[in-house]
Design goal:
Blueprint lengths: L1 H16 L2 E6 L4 H9 L3 E3 L1 H10 L4 E5 L2 H10 L4 E3 L8 H4 L3 H9 L4 E6 L4 H5 L3 E3 L4 H10 L3 E5 L2 H11 L3 E3 L12 H10 L4 E4 L5 H4 L4 E2 L2 H10 L4 E5 L5 H7 L4 E4 L23 H9 L10 H18 L1
Parallel strand pairs: 1-2, 1-3, 3-4, 5-6, 5-7, 7-8, 9-10, 9-11, 11-12
The chain binds (~{Z})-2-methylbut-2-enedioic acid (CIZ) and iron/sulfur cluster (SF4).
Length: 320
């Protein structure tokens, strides 16, 4: 509508004035992803967002996502101003992995290599040997396992179990979960599959094991998007945040995408699988970050930044 259009126009002007670029996650609302594309920013997973921000010539990054993504961008781009639409947007995995308790867990197993998911605070990353995102976690754990390393994995227990099963690695798990993916229900998914027998099921491995077991393809956001393009099926049932439908539909407009059910009653829930924190990234919040940076800027303590950069760079070098 007119109000939204006005916000978009103001944001475009502000981005140019401040030499800023909008970096958005696949789980943000469709209008935010569309705006990032229209303004030559990027729409990506957390690994690609961090890389894009690091390599871009902008002075300011507007990171539309959740706090750990802003922190990761700042760690990789210390000389850029990193703004977020809201600093309130967090993640249940980050919240469920406080650094003091996690460090104690690590200290109790000093012979283990500490591998943490990107969905953690800068302080937790600083305690880790490796940072991984879901698009590269499997390869990195495989590599560590082949060197005979024992692993501490945190914080997502479902992703950890999935990787453990795939690789057979020796892994001690932190017991975190994503509030979005943890809600997918196997019985309702089985019913939906009966209704759409030709549909392929795409699952993000932050989902519970019984959902992963029903998948035709398991992978990170970017891997699921690639699968939805590559596979011949006309219909897909998708178990991840519904924000991803924007990109899937854009790249395969002739295909049909259906949300995996989060309710136990067999009905598909049209708005359940959406991260409440990702949803905080609205147009108004972006405009306010660009007009009044205060209260929107990400800072990471310099000593902490240096420590967190080591396991992050390890991942980025491995991903080359
Ligand atoms: O669930 C998330 O927050 C994901 C998938 C992050 C990422 O790595 O893009
Ligand atoms: Fe965290 Fe889950 Fe939201 Fe991703 S979707 S930011 S893992 S709560």
């Amino acid at each position: 509508d007119a109000e939204k259009q006005a916000y978009k126009e103001r944001i475009k002007v502000l981005l140019r004035e401040k030499n800023a670029v909008l970096v958005a996650h696949y789980y943000t609302d469709p209008e935010i992803q569309a705006l990032a594309e229209e303004t030559n920013g990027c729409v990506a997973d957390s690994l690609e967002m961090a890389r894009f921000g690091r390599d871009h010539q902008a002075d300011t990054l507007i990171v539309a996502g959740v706090k750990f993504m802003g922190e990761t961008s700042k760690i990789l781009s210390p000389n850029k101003k990193v703004l977020m639409p809201t600093l309130e947007a967090t993640c249940s995995l980050d919240l469920g992995c406080p650094v003091d308790e996690f460090s104690e867990f690590c200290d109790a197993h000093p012979d283990h290599t500490v591998v943490v998911y990107a969905n953690t605070s800068a302080a937790v990353k600083a305690r880790a040997d490796w940072v991984v995102t879901s698009s590269i976690a499997l390869e990195i754990v495989e590599h560590l396992d082949s060197e005979g390393k024992k692993i501490i994995w945190g914080p997502d227990r479902h992703l950890g179990s999935y990787i453990q099963k795939q690789t057979g690695a020796d892994m001690l798990m932190w017991q975190g979960a994503c509030v979005v993916h943890d809600e997918f229900k196997a019985k309702a998914l089985a019913n939906l599959k009966q209704q759409y027998p030709d549909a392929a099921v795409l699952v993000h491995p932050e989902s519970p094991q019984n959902i992963v077991e029903m998948a035709d393809a398991v992978g990170s956001t970017s891997q699921l998007i690639a699968a939805s393009q590559k596979m011949d099926n006309e219909t897909f049932i998708v178990a991840t945040d519904r924000g991803i439908f924007y990109k899937m539909q854009q790249l395969a407009p002739e295909k049909t995408f259906i949300e995996a059910p989060t309710g136990g009653n067999g009905a598909t829930c049209r708005s359940c699988a959406h991260c409440p924190w990702m949803a905080m990234n609205g147009l108004q919040a972006i405009e306010s970050a660009l007009t009044d940076g205060s209260g929107h800027e990400i800072f990471v303590d310099e000593a902490l930044r240096h420590k967190a950069l080591i396991p992050l760079d390890r991942m980025l070098d491995f991903a080359q």
